[in-house]
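Quick sanity check, DUF433 domain-containing protein:
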Amino acid sequence: MRLTVRRVLELLATYSNQEELLQEFSELEPEDIQQALIYAAT
C-alpha cells in the first residue's frame, strides 16, 4: 500500500508516537516519516 505525504502527516497527528505508527503500518519505515516531514516543510 502506498501512503501519501498528507496521509503520513495525518497519521503522525493521530498516533501518540512514531513507534506505535510504525507497528500499525509495517510498510512504513522511519526514513519514510522523515522524508514526509521534510517534504511538508518545503
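Posting the structure with no commentary besides this: The chain has three helices and no strands.
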